[in-house]
Design goal:
alpha+beta; seven-stranded antiparallel beta sheet; two-stranded antiparallel ribbon; 2 helices; 9 strands; about 15% helix; about 25% strand; disordered N terminus
């Protein structure tokens, strides 16, 4: 499924770095609240297409979208998995020590946040898609398996042949 390796960001190659953030996990039925991205109109169209392709379950968790309701965000479980589409380019993508992972043809950057929760951001795509996992997934990128096909189908590659 994946291989970790450092990526630099020279002009010919974009970094694939894994980002980690604590998404927060609640044992209540309350919905998570996440900031809604503000992508360009072109990127918003890609995000709307992605929203239509997202699965009802990810890693066995049912769909439970965060608030406020938006086609730019999605969630599964009690904020265990949160997706935001059209996020700004993460600063860490310029870090030559960044690590990347490839899952079913989609490359992601990883960053770890306090508590060890991961946040993954796509690279080499026409808009950035961010997936935040809670601490249960500190060492498990399996939820990306369920999200890779919709991303690959709806968010075109920006740097061929890197998406192949």
């Amino acid at each position: 499924m994946s291989s970790h390796r450092p990526f630099g960001l020279p002009a010919a190659a974009a970094a694939a770095v894994l980002l980690l953030t604590a998404a927060g996990c609640s044992s209540t039925d309350a919905k998570a609240s996440v900031p809604v991205p503000s992508p360009s109109a072109e990127e918003a169209v890609l995000c709307q297409a992605l929203a239509k392709e997202l699965p009802d379950t990810v890693a066995g968790l049912g769909r439970n979208d965060p608030e406020p309701e938006s086609e730019l965000t999605a969630g599964w479980g009690d904020a265990a998995i949160v997706l935001r589409c059209g996020v700004p380019r993460p600063e860490k993508m310029t870090d030559p020590q960044s690590q990347g992972i490839s899952v079913n043809g989609v490359r992601w950057m990883l960053e770890r946040q306090e508590g060890g929760a991961p946040r993954f951001t796509t690279v080499y795509r026409k808009t950035y898609v961010e997936v935040t996992l809670d601490e249960r997934y500190a060492h498990d990128a399996a939820p990306l398996t369920d999200l890779a096909a919709p991303v690959a189908k709806t968010v075109p590659c920006a740097l061929e042949p890197e998406c192949a």
